[in-house]
Write a structure and sequence with these properties.
The protein is α/β, with parallel strands linked by helices. It is built from 4 helices and 28 strands.
């Protein structure tokens, strides 16, 4: 199907636009932009130089993609924002380009970025991630696949959010969040594993129990995290998922959150 461009939209002739793309009123598409097939761009959207939009994406009104990073070190170097296939970006979302540090801000496939969210420079957001309304992530944040940020969640720069985590609403994250966990409370604590989320995703009961037992062991009284991990690694037949938890913790740059006392077994 033909490209549908509203008469009030400003679309550069240099932009590479796929098939069956619609661009709404007053939207702006700059020169160095690539847009895949079957993309819907609503009204008042700005897609700036360096933006790469995958197939089957929807970008709702007044979102701004690919503008310069809010980083004083940035000197105008060419960098990218990449949005994966099938991702939905709701109203008033802002996603900034990368800096020379990584060259790219990346949002994966099948993500839902709800209204008023911000994804800063050099963030790498995995696949199937949900960012609820007004959640904000600072520069260099990494979010693994299937993570879920509650409304008004805030993530400090250089933090890492593990796979299948659930972060409660209005939580400020300043440490790394290990995989499969549920973060609540103010100040933040691990409330346990994201058992409901894992069950909904079809994780076998035995695997969910293994993950739960790992975190129970990790936070056992009398052992610090490093000693607990080293002790646990002596076991045989550790699942791939728990091995990922171990690697995540061992490579944490900011340290990880502790568990609430009531949830320590």
């Amino acid at each position: 199907m033909a490209i549908q461009i509203h008469p009030t939209a400003i679309v550069s002739d240099k932009a590479l636009i796929g098939e069956n793309v619609s661009i709404g009123a007053y939207s702006i598409i700059e020169d160095d932009v690539q847009i895949g097939n079957n993309v819907e761009i609503r009204t008042n959207v700005v897609i700036a130089n360096g933006s790469r939009i995958g197939n089957n994406c929807k970008i709702f009104a007044s979102s701004i993609i690919g503008t310069e990073p809010q980083d004083l070190k940035f000197q105008g170097e060419p960098t990218l924002v990449t949005i994966g296939n099938n991702t939905v970006i709701r109203e008033f979302v802002t996603i900034n380009r990368g800096t020379l540090a990584t060259g790219e801000t990346r949002v994966g496939e099948n993500c839902l970025i709800m209204s008023y969210c911000h994804v800063a420079h050099d963030c790498h957001v995995g696949n199937n991630v949900i960012m609820s309304n007004v959640s904000q992530i600072a520069g260099h944040v990494e979010i693994e696949d299937w993570a879920n940020l509650g409304a008004f969640a805030k993530v400090h720069q250089f933090c890492k959010i593990g796979t299948h985590t659930m972060i409660g609403g209005d939580i400020k994250i300043v440490k790394d969040v290990p995989p499969y966990t549920l973060i609540g409370n103010i100040p933040p604590k691990i409330e346990g594993i994201n058992r409901i989320g894992l069950t909904r995703k079809g994780f076998p009961t035995a695997l969910i129990e293994e993950i739960d037992n790992f975190y129970s062991f990790l936070y056992k009284k009398g052992l610090n995290v490093g000693d607990a991990v080293r002790e646990y690694k002596k076991r045989e037949n550790i699942s791939t998922e728990v091995k990922h938890c171990i690697a995540f913790i061992e490579n944490s740059g900011r340290g990880i959150y502790t568990m609430t006392e009531k949830n320590k077994h």
